Amino acid sequence: MEAELLLLGAGAFLAGFVDAVVGGGGLIQLPLLLAVFPGAPIAVLFGTNKLSSVAGTFTAMLHYARRIKIPKAIAVPAAIAALPGAALGAAAVSFLPPATVRPLVLGLLVVVGTYTWLRPDFGRYEGHGLVRNSVRSVSVLTGFGLGFYDGFFGPGTGSFLVFAFVRLFGLDMVHASASAKLVNLATNVAALAFFLLHQGVMWKVGLVMAVANICGAQLGSHMTLKHGSGFVRWMLLAIVSVLVVKLSWDLFR
């Protein structure tokens, strides 16, 4: 069991690092949990993953908040709206299989990646977004919509949040990433609460992974603040590329 915990801890560290920058840590943690515990109930593994993610996301958000000013007028309404959105998304799974949205998500990821690649200055500086009026209303819709997506399907939520905060509100990549942490924290807490009430988590494994995830999140947020928007942009492109490959494989194999 010690070897498995070391492997899961290493994976959680890397997941925390990636999540703190641009999201996508679930791509690392969930496959590891499934590989190490193939006989465990899926819901328990999902809950264990969320326990680790909540810890890392929370500490990353605190790290950002101590160093930069998170745009609360955008991030807070989005985070609040993401809570019911995530709950409804999780409930919708019983009516519509998440796999049915895979082609749409794949297309959106290609658009996000292509747009970011073709615009080297995208998110490098704070500028004018598409939304100048009704910022709160749009942030609520953004948080609710992506919260629903996170509860319903999940992959790429962090990347979509960063892209939306840059494109809609004109934030630079660093402030967009920090804002995304607040929304991600809300959806992760909602999901964790659901799993705790219904299926539970593997506490020993989850706490070990949580500590490792926190360490990775601290390094990731530190690197983001040190290297700025250019670093976040390349991480965004990397995560989107991995997601495109994974979803394409799942869709066309």
Architecture overview:
The protein is globular. Helix 6 runs antiparallel to helix 7. The protein has helices spanning 2-22, 26-36, 42-67, 72-92, 102-118, 135-152, 157-169, 173-198, 203-227, 229-252. The two termini are 33 Å apart. The chain has 253 residues and is mostly helical. It is 80% helix and 0% strand. The mean pLDDT is 89. It contains 10 helices and no strands.
Report a brief summary of the structure.
Helix 3 runs antiparallel to helix 8 and helix 4 runs parallel beside helix 6. The longest helix has 26 residues, at 42-67.
List the helices and strands and how they pair.
Layout: H1 2-22, H2 26-36, H3 42-67, H4 72-92, H5 102-118, H6 135-152, H7 157-169, H8 173-198, H9 203-227, H10 229-252
Largest sheet, in brief, is: none
Helix content: over 70%
Outline type: globular
Q: What is the mean pLDDT?
A: 89
Number of helices: 10
Q: Structural class of the secondary elements?
A: mainly alpha
Distance, first to last CA: 33 Å
Number of strands: 0
Strand content: under 5%
Gyration radius, in Å? 17 Å
The succession of helices and strands, N to C, reads: HHHHHHHHHH
Segments where pLDDT lies below 50 for 5+ residues? none
What features would you highlight for this structure?
253 residues, mainly alpha, 10 helices, 80% helix, 0% strand, globular
